[in-house]
Structure formats: C-alpha cells, structure tokens
Design a protein that fits this description.
297 residues; alpha+beta; Porin; 2 domains; eight-stranded antiparallel β-barrel; two-stranded antiparallel ribbon; 12 strands; 24% helix
Amino acid sequence: MKSITHNLNSASTKLFSAKSSLASIFLGAAVALSASLTHLNAAPDANNTYRNLKSSQSTLTKQFASGSIVSGSTYGSRSTNAARRWYIFNEGSVGGSYTMLGQANYWAVDLGYHIYLRSIEYTVLGLNFIIGAELNFPIYLSANGRSNILSDHRRFETEESDGIKGWGLELPAMIGFERKGFYLVGLVGYGWQFMRETYTNQVTINNQNRGAHPVIETQYDGLIYGAGIGYKATNILNIGFRYTYGNMTNRFKSTKFDDSAVLNGLDTTNNSITAARGRDLYSIDYHKFMLFAAIVF
C-alpha cells in the first residue's frame, strides 16, 4: 500500500513539473510574440523619428561653415534657450603700406595673419558683429626723410645704400560690424619697429670722403590705434584698407652703432639724442596707411 501511494505521489509531482514547463514555454512564446508585434508597430515610428532627426541635423549643419563655433551666450537672441552662433575665419594677407615715423618715411611690403569671429545671426540694422585680432609683419624696403635720433636730424643716405631698411611687428585687436560683405572695424594694439638707418659718411682722407656709410640700428615701439574698412567677396577674398596711428618710443638701450657710425662720432653725446639724455626718446608720431588682399582659409 505504501508503495502504491509513493508511486502516485511521484507521478503527480512529474505531471505538475511537466505542466509548469509547458506553461513556461507558452509564456515565453507569448512574451516574444508580444515583443515582436510591439517592435513591428514601433518600427515605423522609429524610422520616422530617425528621418526627422537627420532632416533637422541637415538643416542645422547647413547654417555652419567649416570651423564654425557656437557660443553659449544668449545675448541678442529672442529666445532665452537659443545659443548665439559664430563663424570663425582665418586669413593670410599680403599688401603694401606707407609709414610716417616722426621725420622719417618708409615704404613696406606687409605680410599678415587675421583671425576673427563673425556672428551668424543679424544684430540691429541687419549687421553682423565682428571681433578678432590681426598680426602684421611689415618689411621696409625704402626709406627717406630725416633722422629722429640724431640731434641735427640729418637726412638718410638713399643713393648708395640698398637692402632692407627694417621690419616691424604689429598686433592690433579689432571689433566692428559687417553687412553684405562690407565691413568697418576699430583697431587697438601694440607695435614694434626695428629700423636700420643709413647716413652719409663724413670722414675724409686727403680731402676725400672715404669709408662705408654709417649705419644705426634702433627700435621704436608703442600703442597703436586706428580703423579699417573693406569688402569680403563670398567669404573667399578680403580686400581692405587700414589706418593706424600712435606715439612711439625710441629705445636708448636698443640703439646700436656700427664701426663707421662710431668713426663718424654719431654715438657721442654731441650727435645722439638718447646718448645725451641717457634715456629713451618719447612721443614720436606714427601714422601708417595700408592696403591689402587676404585669402580666407
């Protein structure tokens, strides 16, 4: 009797286990089928969402040029959640300039690099805001006029001297507006001028002028201010004009006299203004007019 009861209990347990397994299989199949149906129903919505996202992305990226940036500032935007957008431009330039430095005048070839941001969104009156900096490197090819650093302000020697007359480095910041390619900017920065001044040799031997012409190398630097106008054609070519001015300081310790200049006595207190004063020479007027063409890259 106990054996029969044991066998019945064992069979009942196996039957319950089989039913549980069968129920689990059906439940798993139902879940899988439900998930498949849900996926099929959601697929069109997912595809639409993806297409809408790509369309929005395409519309957004069309508003940006290569190298553009986005500012988190909301200044000037109608929406408090909108981001102010900017283009960033890099330019390489070449041009020519005429510089008046005290009583001296110079012609130069100018090489430059410009980097600036321009707002994509229009500001008041349909203007685009511009802010950036310029780096200009003038190479002075000719000089005329008179000396700023010798007490008699003698003229430069221009007939028998050749070569580069000096070079400079100018770093102004700029801020302004652009409309339909035309722009106007204000400039403020600092400039350095490293000049090579040649004078007529006055040493005589047997009543004849003999020897090399004396050369003085000297440095000027100071704050510069100015303005610029120009036109940028299709964000490729920038044609512009710059005017800068300021008061330069001639550096006493940076003035060097070559052997001929020493032989002519130009380094003495009788001839050199800075040597006589023992300090720098201030308030030398500076004016520069530059025309250039730049390629945007």
